[in-house]
User: Fold this.
Amino acid sequence: MSDTIRVAALCGSLRKASYNMMALRTAIEVAPAGMTITPAEIGDLPLYNDDIRQQGFPAPAERLGKALGEADAILIVTPEYNFSIPGVLKNAIDWVSRLQPQPFDNKPVAIMGAAMGPLGTGRAQYDLRKMMVFLNAHPVNKPEVFIGMAQTKFDADGKLTDQPTREFIQKLLVALQAWTAQLKPKG
Assistant:
């Protein structure tokens, strides 16, 4: 790992004007010195089908796996659909989890999300944390960033105007930076 921590970011919403995409753009904006955050595309993956995988991984899955594998850490920004994670995000994780080496293995991960309800994305984030156990990833435990009532926290241009939320995102990224340095192989 170089002095700069390279973070690959997954956004669980494909809509460009989504609150989660806005939150991801905010994370890029407030990232601490020594950290770069690069969004990774998940919208062009086919639906997971093991028949397809057995014929060879599709190029979008290989590209995503490479981006996650080469990153020092991963940031997942997710909405909450039906009390859980969106299908597009689950699909992306399903594809890359079959790659060898598996790109989440032993990787630090930060999770955050935005929703219009008062609870933010707590249930979706907890489901993601369960998946991270299976993938042998290492999520940041605190702070948790649940952006509830998102429609009141972003302006018409997609800028996060709620200062406490901006600070929570920044604290999460500082924690990810420290966690990544702590997990870095010695020697």
Notes: The longest strand covers residues 5-11.
